[in-house]
Write a structure and sequence with these properties.
alpha/beta; 5 helices
Length: about 130
């Protein structure tokens, strides 16, 4: 499995990639623009990501904007709703408005920080992946 981790906090990015490395190749992007570049390159090269972990609060483009752009690109390529890449929003924002906004934009799951390994792997399993 190929996993994109979009996280601007270096210790958090290392932590996430360390946890997820056992599941496959992890690519880390430190802001929203780099996340979209990595997503686009993976698509063009024929090795798309199966899982994207997006921090909501990032520089250049926030996670919500990245989520919306990924879903827009999928729609342009004919991917039906619910059949695109699995996207887990990761954030310190646990308020209901942020959660609902993420789901409305097409998030597959939402995890609040601090990320607990058992919660992360439970969520990944609920998306149909073996963890």
């Amino acid at each position: 499995m190929r996993i994109l981790i979009a996280e601007d906090d270096h210790p958090s990015a290392r932590y996430m990639s360390g946890l997820l490395a056992r599941l496959g190749e992890c690519v880390v992007a430190e802001d929203g623009e780099l996340a979209l570049e990595a997503y686009g390159c993976a698509q063009e090269e024929g090795g798309p990501f199966q899982l994207v972990c997006l921090d909501i609060m990032m520089p250049r483009r926030n996670g919500q904007e990245v989520l919306e752009e990924i879903r827009k690109r999928e729609q342009q390529c004919g991917v039906k709703n619910g059949q695109g890449v699995k996207i887990i929003m990761t954030t310190a924002l646990g308020d209901m408005r942020s959660v609902m906004s993420a789901y409305k934009a097409g998030a597959t799951a939402y995890i609040t920080k601090p990320i607990m390994p058992e919660r992360l792997f439970e969520t990944i399993c609920s998306l149909g992946f073996e963890a």
